[in-house]
């Protein structure tokens, strides 16, 4: 095969630098910049020119050498590795190394040189078309209230319930994607949940954790109504909230609207939820500290290693709760403000790729 000439190699080096030393981007850019040329170099050809300049000061290949030069073998190896990840970005380094018969260190080194990075998936709820406007409007309202009263978010008691089981919850730590861009590293989750053995209700207000309160079976409307009537006020007292502070609480929940009477009596004009004074946007777990902090933190502690027994599960839950500090809870407020701004920027859609 005829070699490229000096001008062509020079253009390859120039485009390689303009593309941030990414050979695949350089190959694509080269074809766009010089569409009338008879042939276009692959990423391996461009890398070969770069390596030769680094080693000899010249991009031109030395055809006087015989056999298959070590450099040529290395370039073919690099091209094979990058090709695998381009076709399957979710592949692991271990599996690629095994399939190609290469050391894992070699695979890591080559994808690092190409500026490929691993990004773990973010769990996000599947949104309906009608959700976007509602989510945006809620975030705009929240930020407006914060501007009027910087203490407002600290008066919101975010609440939720979750079930823990021996087999754990859906875990994204082992889901990954190799790419040069983190903008799409999220995965939609359909609306179904498993049934577990330990069921908890909990709340967060300012720097305090409310509860948790353990309940048997499914948290039905009737169970929730009885909880509001009998258990919530004692939990607020136990956590040290004064009567004056309790009168300023805004309760947020995502439960049934059939408890409006109880909520209107306990939190008149101060609750956020279905049918409430202010509507909570559905499918918006990414906007509540209960999900983006508390439950995720607890799962990371509880399921760090497999849980063997129900007793061990209870001990892990206690350990996870003890690891939570007032400062961690307080930081949820700034995180929520950032998420609200990002949600508006995303026009009510998924915004995890905008978080810094």
TrEMBL record:
InterPro entries, sorted: DUF4817, RNaseH_sf, Tscrpt_reg_IclR_N
- The source's domain of life comes to Eukaryota
Q: Name one Pfam family in it.
A: DUF4817
Q: Where is the DUF4817 domain?
A: 8-58
In alphabetical order, the GO MF annotations are: nucleic acid binding
Q: Name all HTH iclR-type domain ranges.
A: 80-110
Q: What is this protein called?
A: Uncharacterized protein LOC107267241
Q: Which gene encodes it?
A: LOC107267241
């Amino acid at each position: 095969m005829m070699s490229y000439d000096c001008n062509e190699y020079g253009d390859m080096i120039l485009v390689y630098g303009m593309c941030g030393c990414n050979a695949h981007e350089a190959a694509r850019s080269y074809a766009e910049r010089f569409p009338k040329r008879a042939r276009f170099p692959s990423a391996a050809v461009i890398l070969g020119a770069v390596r030769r300049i680094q080693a000899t000061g010249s991009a031109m290949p030395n055809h006087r050498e015989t056999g298959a030069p070590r450099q040529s073998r290395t370039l073919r190896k690099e091209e094979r590795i990058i090709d695998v990840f381009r076709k399957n970005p979710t592949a692991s380094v271990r599996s690629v190394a095994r399939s190609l018969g290469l050391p894992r260190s070699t695979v890591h080194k080559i994808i690092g040189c190409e500026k490929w990075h691993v990004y773990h998936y973010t769990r996000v709820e599947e949104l309906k078309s009608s959700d976007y406007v509602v989510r945006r409007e809620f975030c705009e309202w929240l930020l407006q209230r914060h501007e009027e009263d910087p203490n407002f978010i600290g008066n919101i008691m975010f609440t939720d319930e979750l079930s823990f089981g021996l087999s754990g919850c859906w875990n994204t730590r082992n889901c990954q994607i190799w790419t040069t861009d983190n903008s799409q590293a999220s995965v939609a989750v359909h609306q179904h949940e498993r049934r577990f053995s330990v069921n908890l209700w909990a709340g967060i207000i300012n720097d305090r954790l409310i509860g948790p309160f353990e309940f048997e079976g499914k948290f039905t409307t009737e169970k929730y109504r009885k909880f509001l009537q009998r258990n919530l006020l004692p939990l607020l007292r136990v956590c040290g909230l004064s009567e004056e502070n309790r009168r300023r609480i805004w309760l947020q929940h995502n439960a049934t609207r059939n408890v409006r009477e109880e909520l209107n009596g306990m939190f008149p004009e101060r609750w956020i939820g279905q049918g409430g004074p202010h509507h909570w946007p559905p499918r918006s777990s990414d906007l509540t500290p209960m999900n983006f902090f508390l439950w995720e933190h607890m799962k990371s502690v509880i399921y760090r290693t497999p849980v063997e027994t129900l007793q061990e599960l209870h001990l892990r839950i206690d350990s996870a709760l003890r690891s939570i500090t007032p400062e961690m809870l307080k930081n949820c407020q700034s995180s929520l403000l950032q998420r609200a701004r990002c949600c508006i920027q995303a026009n009510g859609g998924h915004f995890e790729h905008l978080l810094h």
